[in-house]
Write a structure and sequence with these properties.
- It is built from 9 helices and 2 strands, in the order ααααααααββα.
- The chain has helices spanning 4-25, 31-50, 56-63, 66-71, 75-90, 93-114, 129-143, 149-163, 176-192, and strands at 168-169, 172-173.
- The protein has one domain (4-192).
- It is globular, with a radius of gyration of 16 Å.
- By secondary structure, it is mainly alpha-helical.
Amino acid sequence: MLKELEIRRQVAHLIGGIIYVALIYLDVLTASVAGILLLIYILISIISRKMKIPLFSPIFELFEREEDLKKFPGKGTILFMASIFICLLLFPKDIAMASIVILAIGDSIGPLVGQYGNIKSPFNKKKYIEGGIAGGIAATIGAMIFVSPLEAAFAATIAMIAEGVDWKLGKDKLDDNIIMPLVAGGIIMLLRWGL
């Protein structure tokens, strides 16, 4: 069973992602705004390692894992915003929104359902196939708001497979907040190019 902290994190991830996508849809959250927010989030993280910041420190304590609270407060938010920034730079708006929805929904529903799973993933023994399937289906439905059903299904499926693998760059593990939307957006672009 997921700990209460992890459930809080997944729900915040889902709701936050949907809010970000709504702001992109309304042209409030653009690449420029995402870049500025990313810099602000990084600055808050750096300051909060040295001192408590009203409003932010209690939020970090509510949602951060213990190891990140000490070394990298706000890690999930920073990486999520980094992926939004990158998606808005690389992809057309509809693909960026679909990619971010796939991250928000798939990466939240997967662990919530996966905690009840029985079949371990062949790529990562900490994850379950049932969670990946549920996350993929939910992410497909969410992405279909912005792209075709075929694009949504392929992008969500491949992104969920990619999420289930522990990707490394040297000794450092790559975060799925970056991997998933880039894979999803890349798949949709390839489909549109007819590859």
